[in-house]
């Protein structure tokens, strides 16, 4: 009876809406912290969000969505370092770029992963049609970015965004390789190496952000430091909201994958891209010319076409089972899908 209620249609719709709301919300909340408050301490906010990710993974493990596994610290260190580069560069990209540029550049992560896989295996599994779809996606990203006035005026931010794309691709590529090497799913690995990532970011944060330790000890902290920043209700609420949304992204991702399918989640990813772009225009004043809109549409169509072509090329004889609580992987943008 409980399982029937848990997987009922109203419940599934609720999981989908929760995932969409939280995935979009964590991007908007983080941008609000960076832009409107402003709280420009990227590494510190990334540390808070990474801790919230681990809390979310702990909660879903306690709820039985996957089983934690133990690995040697040495085997997890490359993934922890890759994760740190991925989340830090994406957070920095969000802080430097408009929401629209940040989100459009993230689309290029898919071609990046495929290119890495093709370089290692020396073949493209989806063939010429897949290559054409990826070329369309890359062209769409280029057009959408090139016709964005904020991107043209902020080439440094675009460079950081491209570095974030490279880091995202490398992280996802290494993660897939480690899953095969350690015979573990992505959820088990993420839960296992996140404590290492938290430690690495905690060590790096004072090197990236100005904490003002010396001034704080003298009781005269500087306002442009982490310790001297004027934390009011508005700032604290926004930071805690971003962290809470990060936790809910992890939980809702498991719920969606456990009750629908990876294909449904992939479709939701496109819907979230559209909503985040629309939210960037509405909340933060991003522009959307018809040329830029056409570029976004081409990029999303290219990624969707590649996903379809690749799935057809690797389609098994026996239809795969729907994702279970134990095997459902965590799809991150974070937080940040990982969002940032």
TrEMBL record:
Q: Where are the transmembrane segments?
A: 12-29, 35-59, 71-89, 131-149, 155-176, 188-208, 238-258, 265-285, 291-309
Q: What is its main location?
A: membrane
GO annotations of cellular component type = membrane
What membrane topology is annotated for this entry?
Multi-pass membrane protein
Could you tell me the keywords of this UniProt record?
Answer: Membrane, Transmembrane, Transmembrane helix
Where is the protein found, in the record's own terms? Membrane
Task: Show where the Sugar phosphate transporter domain sits.
Answer: 23-306
Protein's UniProt keywords contain Transmembrane helix:
yes
Top-rank taxon of the source lineage equals Eukaryota
How is this protein named in the record?
Answer: Sugar phosphate transporter domain-containing protein
The scientific name of the source species is Edaphochlamys debaryana
Organism lineage reads as: Eukaryota, Viridiplantae, Chlorophyta, core chlorophytes, Chlorophyceae
